[in-house]
Amino acid sequence: MTPLAVTAFSLASPLGSGTAATLGALRARRGGLRPNDLEGAPLETWIGRVAGVEQTPIGGDLAAFDCRNNRLAELGLRADGFEDAVARARGRYGARRIALFLGTTTAGIAETEKAFAQRGADGALPGWFRYRETHNLFSLCDYVQRRLGLAGPAATVSTACSSSAKVFASAHRLIEAGFADAAVVGGVDSLCLMTLYGFRSLELLSSTPCRPCDAARDGLSIGEAAGFALLERPRPGERSLALLGYGESSDAYHMASPHPEGAGAADAMRSALERAGVEPAQVGYVNLHGTGTPSNDSAEDAAVFGLFGDAVPCSSTKGWTGHTLGAAGIVEAVISLLCVREGFIPGSLNVASLDPALKSRVAVAPQELPLKRVLSNSFGFGGNNCSLLLGTLA
Fold first, then answer.
1. How do residues 121-139 score in pLDDT, each as one tens digit?
2. Annotated catalytic, 339?
3. What dihedral angle (degrees, nearest 10) is formed by the CA atoms of 76, 80, 86, 87?
4. Section 34-40 average pLDDT
5. Could you give the CA distance from residue 291 to residue 295 in angstroms, rounded to a whole number?
6. Is the distance from CB of 306 to CB of 205 less than 8 angstroms?
7. Domain 4-392, CATH number (from 3.10.20.30, 1.10.3720.10, 3.40.47.10, 3.40.50.1000)
8. Are 10 and 170 in contact (CB under 8 A)?
9. Are 317 and 26 in contact (CB under 8 A)?
10. Of the residues 67, 259, 323, 339, which is catalytic?
C-alpha cells in the first residue's frame, strides 16, 4: 500500500492532556489509574479518569452538543496544537476534501443515563435531553466536524475495542479512492455506568489496577480517552511518521471471548505486515491489546509468538490508562508513534510476576531502543480485530 504521513496527533488520557504528559508518565512509570470514584457506580475497581472534563463545558453555537463524551473530545482537539494543524490542512485542501472517521462504543450514553434517572412520573424523559447531539453514535463526528470546520465525508466506526484503529483503514481506503486528500481520524470514549456494570456482569473487572501479562492478572480496568491524528499523502522527500500498513479480521469465535489460539489476531497482524511489504523481523516493537484478562492475554500471546517468536519485544500500556474501549486504538496508536519518534519502549506496568506460560518476549521494564516500525494491536468483542503498522517514511 501507499503509506500515509501522520502529520499531527494528539491525546487526552488519564495520563494527562497532550503527548508530553503521556511520554513523561510512561518514562517515569507513573500510571493514571485510581480507585473508582464515578458517581452512581459504587464498585470496587480502579478507573482511568481524564482530568479537566468537568471543567470543559461546550457553549456557543455548539452548546447542544454538551456532554461528557464531547467535552472529552474537546480536550483532545485542544491538545498538541491539533486543531491548528487541521486548520492549516483545511487551507491546503479545502474543507470538503478532508474526511473524518472516529471510533466510539457508547458515545454519550452517560447523558442518557442521567436523563433516565430524571424521568417524569409518566416515564417521559426530561426536556433538556438531546439524544441527537449527545448519545447518537454520529453525535461525536457531528460535533468534531463542526468544531474543526470540515465538510468532507464523515462516519463513526463502532466495532467495540477495535473502533479507533479501524478508522485508519477506512481513511486510507477513502483517500486511495480519491474521495479525499486528507483525513482526521481518532476516537473518544468516556466513563459511564453501562460499561462499568456491563464488564462487572461479565466478571471481567479487576478490583486492583489491571496488570496485563502478570501471572495473577484477574481482569481489566476501565478508562476514558480522546485522541486524534491527521493523515495526508506524503510529500516528495518528506521524512515523517506514517501509517505503513493495516490488517483487519473477524474470527467470530465467541460473542465476548477471543479465539483461544489467537487465530483472528494473527490474521490481522499478518495482513498489516503483508500490506506494508514488511517481514516480522523488521518490526521493532509490538504494542499489545493486552487487557489484563487471562483469556485475552493468553490468546494474543499465542498469536504474537506464532508470528514473531520471542524475537520482538512487546508490552501492554493499559496498566497506565486502563482499557479505553472505543478509544483504545487511537490511544495506543499515538503511544506507538511516540515510541518510534522517541526510540522508547514502555514496559507493562503493575507486573509483579510475569506469567511463565506466556511465550512472547514481554517487556516489563522500559527500554531505550531505536525503532523504525511498531505494530499496534486492537482486538474487540466478537473477534473484530485490527492491527496497525506505524513507523517512519524512508
1. 999 999 999 999 999 999 9
2. no
3. 110
4. 95
5. 9
6. no
7. 3.40.47.10
8. no
9. yes
10. 323
Tens-digit pLDDT profile for residues 224-251: 999 999 999 998 878 899 999 999 998 8
Q: Average of pLDDT values for 54-58?
A: 96
Backbone angles phi, psi at 269, to 5 degrees: -65, -45
Grid coordinates representing 191 are 466513563
Q: Cell 474470527 appears where?
A: 251
Q: CA–CA separation, 129 vs 125, rounded Å? A: 7
Q: What is the pTM of this model?
A: 0.97
Does the annotation mark 289 as catalytic? yes
Q: Where are the domains of the chain?
A: 4-392
Q: Which of 289, 314, 339, 386 is catalytic?
A: 289
Task: For the chain, state the CA radius of gyration.
Answer: 20
Residue 256 scores a pLDDT above 70: no
Q: Say whether pLDDT at 375 is over 90.
A: yes
Mean predicted lDDT score pLDDT of the chain: 95
Catalytic residue among 161, 192, 339, 386: 161
Q: Does residue 161 have an active-site annotation?
A: yes
Q: Are strands 225-232 and 182-189 parallel, antiparallel or unpaired?
A: antiparallel
Mean pLDDT throughout 167-178? 98
